[in-house]
Every structure is written in C-alpha cells, then in structure tokens.
Amino acid sequence: MQNYEIIDVYNEEGKIIRQCIRDDSKPMAGFFLSVHLIVISKNNKFIVQKRKNKAIDNGKWDILSGVVKSGESSYEAAYRELYEELSIKKNDCEISYKERIMGKKNIMDIYIVKLKRKMHIEYQHEEISEIKYIDSKTLYNIFDSSDKEEELKSCIYEILFDASPYIT
To answer: Which end of the chain has less neighbouring CB within 10 Å, N or C?
Structure first.
C-alpha cells in the first residue's frame, strides 16, 4: 500500500511544472495546490476541526483543508477531503467554488459547502481530535487570532460578511 502522496508542483502562474512526493517536513521549490472548505451545517453553523498529527497548525481549530493530489482537480479533492475527514458524501452537500488565492507556498482554492440535511459527522480520528459547530463570529475570531496568510483571512472575512447567500 502506498504510504505517500504524489502532488503537482506549480509555478507562480499556476502552471504545473513537475510532480513530487509530499513531505511537509521539508521546504518545497514551487507551489502546491490546496483546498479550503467552509462547511455550513443544515442548522447554519460552521463546522470546524481541531487539527491533530499535522506539521502545520497542529492542535489548532481550523476549517477543513487538504492538499490536491497529482492528477486530481481541486473540485475532486474537495469532495475527497469531505469524505475522508468528515464522512460527508457528494449527495449530502452542495459545493460551490468561491475563489483562488495565491499564497506564499501554496495556491488555495476556496469552496463553500452547504449540507443538505442534518447528519451525524463521523470524523477521521487520525487527523482530527474533535469537531464543533460554531457561529460566524466565532469563526471570525479563530481566523483573526491565527497566523494564516492575510489573503486567506480576507477571503474568509468576506464570506462571513456576506454569508446570507449560503445561510438560509
């Protein structure tokens, strides 16, 4: 069984320049593509995770995110991450693309995920120590006190400020 992930490496223009084995412990020349998912429950609460066993933001509350594997679209990665980490299937949610942000080390595709029904979330215990349902003010405070890149924070703030299209 494969213990590692192959990811695409991008240049500053967002073009794939090569593939490599993912290794969070070493700096990488180039950018990798990641997805960041703002998950909204049927009760209009944001679902956040406490990260566990991670090189980045270990022990911190965060939205769902993950690296896009080589040959995979960010849309496919978004659904994969939803299922792998929170057991949410395609037919359980509606997903919409928000925007792409160029970070210092990665390219971030932001998605908004709205659950279609109330459901029990069975999260992956290897990467997540717990999940919780929070309001927009609490999510704002999580990002406001984080060391996330300013471009990502601005996108999250914009979504929270104009959350009415997503919260019904």
So the answer is: N
Q: Tokens 């703030």 — which residue?
A: 157
Task: Please state the φ and ψ torsions of residue 39, each to the nearest 5 degrees.
Answer: -100, 125
d(CA 39, CA 59): 19
Whole-prediction pTM: 0.89
Domain layout of the chain by residue ranges:
6-161
Residue 59, Cβ density class (10 Å: 0-12 exposed, 13-18 middle, ≥19 buried): exposed
Contacts of 39 (CB under 8 A, 6+ apart): 46, 47, 63, 64, 82, 86, 88, 93, 113, 115
pLDDT in tens, 126-151: 889 999 999 988 999 888 888 888 88
Residues 38-89: pLDDT tens digits?
A: 999 999 999 999 988 666 667 789 999 999 999 999 999 999 999 999 999 9
Pairwise CA distance, residues 165 & 168, whole Å: 7
Which residues, at least 6 apart from 16, have a Cβ–Cβ distance to it below 8 Å? 8, 9, 10
